[in-house]
Sequence to fold (993 residues):
Amino acid sequence: MIALVTAAQVAFWALAPLMVLCAIGMVVSRKPVHSAVFLAGMMVMLAVQYAALDAPFLFVVQIIVYTGAIMMLFLFVMMLVGVDSSDSVVETIKGHRLASVLAVLGFAGLLLFGIGNAIKGPAAGLEQANAAGGGNVPSVAELIFVRYVFVFEATSALLITAAVGAMVLAHGEQVFPKIGQKLTAARKMRAYAETGQHIGPRPNSGVFARHNAIHVPALLPDGSVAESSLSQTLSSRGAYIDAGELRAPTDAAFAEISKVTDNAGELE
Amino acid sequence: MNPNYYLVLSAILFCIGVLGFLLRRNAIVAFMSIEMMLNASNLAMVNFAHVHGGLDGQIAAFFVMIVAAAEVVVGLAIIVTIYKTRRSASVDDANLLKF
Amino acid sequence: MAASGLFSLAWLMIAIPLVVAGFLLVAGRLTDAWGHLLATLAVIASFLIGLVLFIDLLGRDASQRSVSNSLYELFSVGRWKFDVALQIDQLSILFVLLITGVGSLIHVYSIGYMAHDERRRRFFAYLNLFIAAMLTLVLADNYLLLFFGWEGVGLASYLLIGFWQHRNSAAVAAKKAFVVNRVGDLGMTMGIFALLAQLGTVNFTQVNERAAGLSPFWATLIGFLFLLGACGKSAQVPLQSWLLDAMEGPTPVSALIHAATMVTAGVYLVVRSHALYAQTEAASLAVAIVGTVTLLVGAWIGTSKDDIKKVLAGSTMSQIGYMMLAAGLGPIGAAFAIFHLITHGFFKANMFLGAGSVMHGMDDDVDMRHYGALAKAMPITFITFAMGYLAIIGFPFTSGFYSKDHIIEAAFEKNTVLGVLALLGAGVTAYYMTRLMMMTYFSQKRWRQGVHPHESPLVMTIPLMVLAVFSVIGGALMLGWITGWLAPATGGEEEHLSLVHFSGIGLLTMAVVAVGVVIGWWLHRRDVPDTAPATRNPLVIAGRRDLYGDALNEALLMRPGQHLVAGLDSFDRGVVDGAVMGSAGVFGGLSSAVRRLQNGFVRSYGLTMVVGVVLVGVVLILGQLA
Fold:
């Protein structure tokens, strides 16, 4: 007779190798986003293991809290600090990689030797415990809100503290001195005294031209381009309109006007 | 099914987490490794709950999740702050505490 | 007997100058304008108290004249009690009168002498400090309190010798005096320890009572230790070298401290300890020998110096040598020692102040070869100085005549060799004092350019006149009663001394003195070279070099000391420091090696943690398996 294969066994043997692969993928992928995706996958599979271990409540919580909340938080932060910042492969600390691998192998050996065979006999199963409260969730709820109620309250305090702490930490601290009106004026005066830089505001884009869009350079009275009206970002992208192109219609219009006055003079 | 298998899986995941923490310089990935270690231990606890027929192991895993959530919130805030001042998310660059 | 009435206020004599000294030093420039007057008044107040007490004592019966006045208990250790207590008796009251009397005159004199010194107030504060310390020394009723005063006068002496500390020579001289005195103090302290160990007390009265019970060895040892202390303080051979350098101090200081009072503290100590010295022939003889040697050495130095203050300093050494000789002769000599001490206080202070007056007129020049024919330019100074001169050479009926001749006679009674040497010393004294007189006041003018000798102001000459009068008549005044007065305090007997006193030895002394005077006059009657002539006479060279006292000290003490200290220093550096620094270096090196572990990389710390966990786990598992 073929040995009975339970759903739990299927879930384990199908997902455990995948979980290990996901974990290894998380460690070795160079882009943090990939790591996050691998980790999220591992966590979902872990949730399945929970379900197989008679823990439907944790199954849901694992998916909602870990993959839903915590991983999203990771992704948000990754967005803040730069998604595309990938690690270099070169190890900077001499001998660290080898030593780490050796130490972890030792640790793994120790763990497997210590607890890998810790449980004797078959599992007792949770049917009885779950049934006592009328299902897994009510039973867990009873434990949380009766026996572990103080711990639960303490964790609520912890969560509030963490939220406040995160707000305080992430709240923009003034790292550089705030540049106010006074400081700006002083800097401008100093620049004027030292390099003769113009004190007034920079020229707007598009002055003297037909367009005043941001990609139109300002022209000085002599017709040349005012460099200080250019945005570095835009000019590095080559988004600026050529000044001569702008000048041409103006010059043409001016020529037309002067022709009219000349004619007027002739008429008189 | 032999419940020891879950323990072995838990140990392997934990060790991979340790390795990730030791090898990765990106603070966020290092943090993910820590999360993975927590998850691995959670698996062990849920497994023990199953083996012993009591729900306390699940409760412990539940609290671990809460604490992990709080820890992640603060830890990521710290990473953001460090990044704002030093323009780097590498754990090697935050090395003021040395000889 | 216990103190009552006025005697219970005797501590005021010490307290007044002490408080004034402290006040002047603390109050600072506020008191610049009148501080010197306050200081002078303080000493005069002490003098008046002393005088009243003296008169009170005079009216008492001889057995009632020793008054002890216990102020408070300093500390007590087991059986030993140390009181701060004053003893006013025949001996100390004479000292009080000398110190405060001469001290008052010198204070008055200093008002004129230091008029142009911008630190005059400080000078007077130090002088008052000295008076307070010296009175503590002589009024103490035990050796410990005496030692307090002993150190106090040492301090005041140090401060005053180095008063012009901007001059290197003064600073060095002050340091030298201090260091040499420390050597003497070693003897003092060890003597006091020995007394305490053997007799269990340091109180004078009790020591005197119990001295007979001392074993000869300890009596001799303590005698020698106290002699060492006395040598240091009184500039006796072999600790004489500091006194000549001490002349770097202002002249009133030389007069008060280094002629009249402080340097006689050694004589006071020996006389105070007469009961101890009565127990030991060897120590007494040593005192007499030290005195004799010093009186010759001092006289010798006096003959060859051109610096007027150094001649007088040599003379002081010599005269204190006489006192020590007398003190070593036993009870009767002790009375003469005090007698000579007091007359010497008068005439030597007189001559020092006269020398100061001369220097004052000669723009602070001390070289006698730049003087000459000052008798006309400074008549008052000359006449008063001449009184002192007559007294010191022992001219008949002056004070020195009575006091010194009796010492020489007593020396002959005791030991002919000592007597002959003392007699010789008298002749040499006559010679060098005549030389000083001739070079300073007679012969031709050798003044430097721009020097216009003039008589000093009255504030300086009046003390001179008072001291001159006492130089002449002091001896005759005290002659009648001094031995009887002092007998209870010195353990001697009363001797009846007559005013007109010409024994065979006395006549012989006068003849020797006359020879000395004639030689001195003959050699210096005409030209005195402007600079000291080069000479090959080894005696003169030795004299000019202070009989090689400094060279001897350097060769015998300083050089070996330096070598010892250098050796200890290199031992300290090499071995002690080497061990300490070496072990420190080992740990420092280890630390900086271990420090490298703190490389700032969180991942390395994490690795360390993992390795630690593995190790702990392995240990636990192995422990389980074992």
In short: The first strand of chain C starts at residue 67 and ends at 77. Residues 549-595 of chain C form the longest helix (47 residues). The mean pLDDT of chain C is 87.
